[in-house]
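Reminder to self: tokens first, then the designed residues, so the page reads top to bottom the way the pipeline ran.
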């Protein structure tokens, strides 16, 4: 898209990646954007760049506003290559000796990634830099989403350039929250659940630090997706709530199946949960992408996972999902394993071990059914769903 003036003298010069459908294992079925921002002042500043294959578009966007050589300062809020990949082209275009501001960790990471002798300058947490009429303050935000991450705050306009924080993988005609409305929240939630969930304790601390800084945030400009200008407090409040991970009366039944026996168990458990009035759904791991399942896990108070036994082990998609979920460190969940088997029957035990490793509260020992569930087995699954539902209701009151 063409650059947009988001405030007087401040432009989004980033690019839209309409067709990306997989972002390192995350399904980006609506594409994404790599936002980059140009601030015009006595010193002109470029905040972040874009993936390297979009470098030409970024330069074209900048050139439609000013000669890129007139950029005085580059800021790298985060070294991950979706935001830094165009740095070599940009530095070459504007001048290799121009100052490149980054966090103290960025000072270590940028040279490791690019092996270039750029004029990198590591800023201190809270450091203020004058641009002439305006000034920037840097806020260290380690692990949102890499150790080098920082936010850049434009003091006079109250604009927070938040890198990955508050972002969404969404590409559309809309550029602002007031243009898209509440439907953006599902994309923001998916981004949080799949990228930032494991850093929840750090996010809560950063939110507290920002609230104590007594600054006004009129606009939040993330590096992905839409800009929050109508109600930036809405996404801040959502981050606080998601980071707390308070259990809700919601349960997921996540499974895969070979000959529909584990599926019959999953459906019966789901129906038991519904019978208790619990918000729930069965999630077949070859019909749902792991990142969509993880989005639902974020607010679930109970996670029920089922696998058939395959070659004395777990079904591969179940292993994949458990590994993925474990890395994201969800908290405050009830865990329950189940599964069907033909002869050896290890799957329920193996699922339970994984749930224990994630520090889930194990509700009951894994439920196993041999071959095809008959009426008695279906009733046992339904009853298990009801008991989990009953406990969830008490927990979430
Ligand atoms: Fe959008 Fe961590 O990069």
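Designed residues (397 positions):
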């Amino acid at each position: 898209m063409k650059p947009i003036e988001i405030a007087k003298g401040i432009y989004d010069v980033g690019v839209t990646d309409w067709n990306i459908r997989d972002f390192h294992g995350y399904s980006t079925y609506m594409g994404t954007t790599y936002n980059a921002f140009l601030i015009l002042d006595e010193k002109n500043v470029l905040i972040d760049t874009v993936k390297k294959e979009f470098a030409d578009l970024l330069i074209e966007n900048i050139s439609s506003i000013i000669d890129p050589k007139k950029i005085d300062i580059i800021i790298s809020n985060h070294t991950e290559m979706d935001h830094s990949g165009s740095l070599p082209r940009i530095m070459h275009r504007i001048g290799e000796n121009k100052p490149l501001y980054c966090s103290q960790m960025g000072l270590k990471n940028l040279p490791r990634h690019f092996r270039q002798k750029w004029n990198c300058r590591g800023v201190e947490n809270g450091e203020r830099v004058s641009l002439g009429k305006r000034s920037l303050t840097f806020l260290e935000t380690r692990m949102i989403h890499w150790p080098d991450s920082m936010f850049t705050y434009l003091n006079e306009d109250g604009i927070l350039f938040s890198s990955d924080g508050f972002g969404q993988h969404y590409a559309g005609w809309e550029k602002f929250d007031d243009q898209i409305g509440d439907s953006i929240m599902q994309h923001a939630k998916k981004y949080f659940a799949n990228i930032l969930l494991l850093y929840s304790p750090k996010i809560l601390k950063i939110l507290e630090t920002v609230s104590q800084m007594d600054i006004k945030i009129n606009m939040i400009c993330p590096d992905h997706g839409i800009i929050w200008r109508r109600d930036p407090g809405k996404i801040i409040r959502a981050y606080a709530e998601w980071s707390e991970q308070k259990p809700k009366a919601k349960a997921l039944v996540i499974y895969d199946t070979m000959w529909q026996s584990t599926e019959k168990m999953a459906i019966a458990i789901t129906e038991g949960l519904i019978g208790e009035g619990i918000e729930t759904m069965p999630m077949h791991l070859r019909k749902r992408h792991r990142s969509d399942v993880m989005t639902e896990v974020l607010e679930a108070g109970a996670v029920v996972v089922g696998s058939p036994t395959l070659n004395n082990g777990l079904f591969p998609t179940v292993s994949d999902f458990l590994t993925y979920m474990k890395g994201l460190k969800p908290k405050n969940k009830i865990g329950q394993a189940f599964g069907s088997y033909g002869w050896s029957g290890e799957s329920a035990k193996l699922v339970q071990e994984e749930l224990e490793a994630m520090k889930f509260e194990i509700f009951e020992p894994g439920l196993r059914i041999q071959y095809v569930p008959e009426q008695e087995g279906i009733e046992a699954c339904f009853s298990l769903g009801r008991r989990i539902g009953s406990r969830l209701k008490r927990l979430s009151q």
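The mean pLDDT is 97.
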